[in-house]
Structure formats: structure tokens, C-alpha cells
């Protein structure tokens, strides 16, 4: 829902900040890693992970996209909630966590307060392959793939409720006759024929 907030730091503590954005003060939970990166700033940009539970809507903020990306990986593991994920990122650096997971170092993960041997093993088991596949770029979000103009138009028209097979035929005809259409132009032309 939120990607980042960029605003004035009204209040800073090692566990949370109040970030004023557009006249609204947001209470954002942070890790010690983020705190150490933003503590001298008056204005900052925090990458947000918005967590919703039935009893709370909570914002977690990170100084880097990589830290947020790792946080989202960590909380995807059964038994690790947002507060435990933040505790992990406060105890050791994201790079150390990533290295420990990739290299299967249970003892490093287990040293973190609140993480027992079973949870440490589960973190490694569930995340090791994901982080290995991403290699050195695991702390960065995967780049969003850019779709071709006809593919984007197809996705949009299917979301509008049209049959995929019918849309594909219409788009194929349009692309053959007019190859230089933008996504919007292609959608408009297709809507006239559907």
C-alpha cells in the first residue's frame, strides 16, 4: 500500500520515529540499523512495510530498500512476526543476516534475542534458496519486468473483464495494422472493436 514516506523527522528514538508527511505525523517503527543511518538527518525518506493484523495497523520503516526487502523475507517465515523481524535487523546488520542465511550459519541467527535453534533452522531452510538465487543483489528488490505494449494492453483489458482469447485476437489484428500505438492508444482502439 505504501512504498515510502519522505518528510520531516519530528521525533527520533532507537525504536521508532514520527515522520511528518504532508501535515500528517506517522508513527513508524524502525530498526537500530535504520536509526544509525538517519539519526543526524532532519528530513528523511523511509521505505515502508505496512503490516495489518486484526488488532493493529503498523508501519515499519527502513533507511534502505534492501533492509525492507530482507525484513519482508524474514516475516514470510512461519513463527517470525514483524517485531521479531525488526529485532533481528536491530541485532546484526542486514548483510550479516543475509550471509548467515546463505551460508547456513545457524549459530549466528540463533544469537539474536528471541530466536531459538528451531526458528534459526527454519529461517535458513525457508530463505536460503531464495537468497542464493538472488546472489549479491538479495538485499535489493527484484527489478520489475517491463512488459511489451501489447502485453500491458492485454493485462489491462482482461482486468476490465474481457475474455483473454478475444482480447488476444483483437490486439494481434491491431498490432499488425498499427505498430506504433502506445498502451493507451492500443487499449482505446481495442475497446472500439470489442
Automatic annotation (TrEMBL):
Single GO MF annotation: four-way junction helicase activity
Region (Domain III): 151-194
Superkingdom classification of source: Bacteria
Cellular component GO terms, alphabetical: cytoplasm; Holliday junction helicase complex; Holliday junction resolvase complex
Database matches in InterPro entries: DNA_helicase_Holl-junc_RuvA_I (IPR013849), Hlx-hairpin-Hlx_DNA-bd_motif (IPR003583), NA-bd_OB-fold (IPR012340), RuvA (IPR000085), RuvA_2-like (IPR010994), RuvA_C (IPR011114), RuvA_C_sf (IPR036267)
Keywords from the named record: ATP-binding, Cytoplasm, DNA damage, DNA recombination, DNA repair, DNA-binding, Helicase, Hydrolase, Nucleotide-binding
GO biological process per UniProt: DNA recombination; DNA repair
Domain Helix-hairpin-helix DNA-binding motif class intervals: 72-91, 107-126
Location(s) in or outside the cell: Cytoplasm
Family annotation (CDD domains): UBA_RuvA_C
Chief localization: cytoplasm
Domain remarks: Has three domains with a flexible linker between the domains II and III and assumes an 'L' shape. Domain III is highly mobile and contacts RuvB.
Functional description taken from the UniProt entry: The RuvA-RuvB-RuvC complex processes Holliday junction (HJ) DNA during genetic recombination and DNA repair, while the RuvA-RuvB complex plays an important role in the rescue of blocked DNA replication forks via replication fork reversal (RFR). RuvA specifically binds to HJ cruciform DNA, conferring on it an open structure. The RuvB hexamer acts as an ATP-dependent pump, pulling dsDNA into and through the RuvAB complex. HJ branch migration allows RuvC to scan DNA until it finds its consensus sequence, where it cleaves and resolves the cruciform DNA.
Family named by the database record: Belongs to the RuvA family.
Assembly with partners or alone: Homotetramer. Forms an RuvA(8)-RuvB(12)-Holliday junction (HJ) complex. HJ DNA is sandwiched between 2 RuvA tetramers; dsDNA enters through RuvA and exits via RuvB. An RuvB hexamer assembles on each DNA strand where it exits the tetramer. Each RuvB hexamer is contacted by two RuvA subunits (via domain III) on 2 adjacent RuvB subunits; this complex drives branch migration. In the full resolvosome a probable DNA-RuvA(4)-RuvB(12)-RuvC(2) complex forms which resolves the HJ.
Protein name: Holliday junction branch migration complex subunit RuvA
Gene source species: Sphingobacterium yanglingense
Underlying gene: ruvA
Amino acid at each position: 500500500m505504501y512504498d515510502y514516506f519522505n518528510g520531516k523527522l519530528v521525533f527520533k528514538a532507537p525504536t521508532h520515529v514520527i515522520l511528518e508527511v504532508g501535515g500528517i505525523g506517522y508513527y513508524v517503527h524502525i530498526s537500530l540499523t535504520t536509526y544509525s543511518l538517519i539519526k543526524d538527518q532532519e528530513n528523511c525518506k523511509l521505505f515502508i512495510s505496512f503490516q495489518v493484523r486484526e488488532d493493529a495497523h503498523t508501519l515499519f520503516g527502513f533507511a534502505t530498500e534492501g533492509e525492507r526487502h530482507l525484513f519482508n523475507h524474514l516475516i514470510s517465515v512461519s513463527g517470525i512476526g514483524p517485531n521479531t523481524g525488526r529485532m533481528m535487523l536491530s541485532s546484526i546488520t542486514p548483510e550479516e543476516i543475509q550471509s548467515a542465511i546463505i551460508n547456513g550459519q545457524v549459530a549466528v541467527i540463533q544469537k539474536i534475542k528471541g530466536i531459538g535453534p528451531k526458528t534459526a533452522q527454519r529461517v535458513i531452510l525457508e530463505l536460503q534458496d531464495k537468497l542464493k538465487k538472488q546472489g549479491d543483489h538479495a538485499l535489493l528488490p527484484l527489478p520489475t519486468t517491463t512488459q511489451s505494449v501489447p502485453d500491458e494492453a492485454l493485462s489491462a483489458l482482461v482486468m476490465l473483464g474481457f475474455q483473454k482469447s478475444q482480447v488476444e485476437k483483437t490486439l494481434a489484428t491491431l498490432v499488425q495494422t498499427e505498430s506504433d500505438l502506445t498502451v493507451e492508444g492500443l487499449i482505446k482502439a481495442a475497446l472500439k472493436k470489442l
